[in-house]
């Protein structure tokens, strides 16, 4: 599968690096803004890419099968839609869009045109989530779920100093809900489906962005409490508590290093994922679906992505 990339940020660089190890994936071109041409040419030299500064010309390139959209959140819908209309398959960074209506429109467009549309997030393609799902019944009826994904970094340091990056700019759909807590939502909803009720309470920065917050998802018989932050750090984990035991994943759920089960007083390691931060497994799966024409798997994940966007819509009302 020949992949053209849009953008030149950190996630695009990671995608290029990890795609090099994914059999069947070939990165062929990159599209950047004119003012970022130098950065684009630097990546082109390193990875053997052709450089475009015109998105229309990029989409007309017949040596591109799929477009990877690695731009700020508010650009996902526009660039993904244009790519689908041009007959390209699309790999779009999370969150897929910034509203559920946009996500549904893209999903419908992909189905109508018999194209693949993937939301790029690592969780479904590593060993952690399948292991948790397989052993969930061993802990009995679930009563509580806790998810913590809290991190600080250079973006927040710059924010405090007065320089606002898109990840902390509400005008760019930045903030802890869309950039961090979305991982927790994907985890919980992958296991338990759509919650009955939701609410969101957040801490706000000087520009109104949610720098940290907690989403509470109410299911029949239990609650899932999802906390995420960009203004503080924590021991990141998920914990599923049942009447007969618990399952815990260690590290940020986007790249959890392992999953542990405790049932009947005995602990058991269910899965280990030392390279949890790699994008290679998801890229390999996208290539497999493309090569085998497995649209069923793609559609199942896309339905899940749309449901997550609907819950994000509901939670956003609490910001």
From TrEMBL:
Gene Ontology MF terms in the entry: nucleotide binding
Record-linked Pfam families: GFO_IDH_MocA, GFO_IDH_MocA_C3
Domain Gfo/Idh/MocA-like oxidoreductase N-terminal residues, every copy: 1-119
Annotated ranges, domain GFO/IDH/MocA-like oxidoreductase: 138-248
Top-level lineage group: Bacteria
Classification via PANTHER family: PTHR43054, SCYLLO-INOSITOL 2-DEHYDROGENASE (NADP(+)) IOLU (PTHR43054:SF1)
Stated name of the protein: Gfo/Idh/MocA family oxidoreductase
């Amino acid at each position: 599968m020949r992949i053209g990339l849009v953008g030149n940020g950190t996630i695009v660089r990671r995608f290029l690096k990890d795609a090099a190890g994914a059999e069947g994936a070939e990165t062929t071109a990159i599209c950047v803004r004119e003012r970022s041409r130098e950065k684009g040419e630097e990546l082109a030299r390193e990875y053997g890419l052709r450089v475009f500064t015109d998105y229309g010309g990029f989409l007309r390139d017949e040596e591109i099968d799929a477009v990877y959209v690695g731009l700020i959140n508010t650009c996902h819908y526009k660039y993904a839609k244009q790519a689908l209309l041009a007959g390209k398959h699309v790999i779009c960074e999370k969150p897929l869009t910034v509203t559920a209506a946009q996500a549904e429109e893209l999903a419908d467009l992909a189905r109508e045109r018999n194209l693949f549309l993937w939301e790029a997030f690592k969780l479904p393609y590593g060993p952690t989530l399948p292991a948790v799902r397989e052993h969930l019944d061993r802990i009995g009826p679930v009563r509580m779920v806790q998810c913590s994904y809290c991190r600080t970094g250079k973006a927040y340091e710059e924010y405090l100093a007065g320089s606002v990056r898109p990840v902390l700019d509400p005008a760019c759909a930045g903030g802890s809900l869309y950039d961090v807590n979305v991982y927790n939502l994907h985890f919980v909803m992958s296991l338990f489906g759509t919650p009955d009720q939701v609410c969101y309470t957040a801490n706000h920065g000087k520009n109104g962005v949610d720098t940290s917050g907690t989403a509470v998802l109410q299911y029949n018989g239990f609650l899932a409490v999802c906390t995420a932050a960009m203004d503080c750090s924590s021991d990141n984990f998920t914990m599923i508590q049942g009447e007969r035991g618990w399952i815990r994943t260690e590290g940020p759920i986007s790249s959890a290093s392992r999953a542990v089960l405790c049932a009947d007083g005995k602990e058991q390691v269910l899965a280990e994922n030392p390279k949890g931060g790699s994008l290679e497994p998801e890229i390999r799966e996208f290539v497999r679906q493309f090569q085998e024409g497995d649209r069923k798997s793609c559609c199942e994940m896309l339905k899940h992505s749309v449901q997550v966007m609907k819950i994000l819509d509901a939670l956003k009302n609490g910001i």
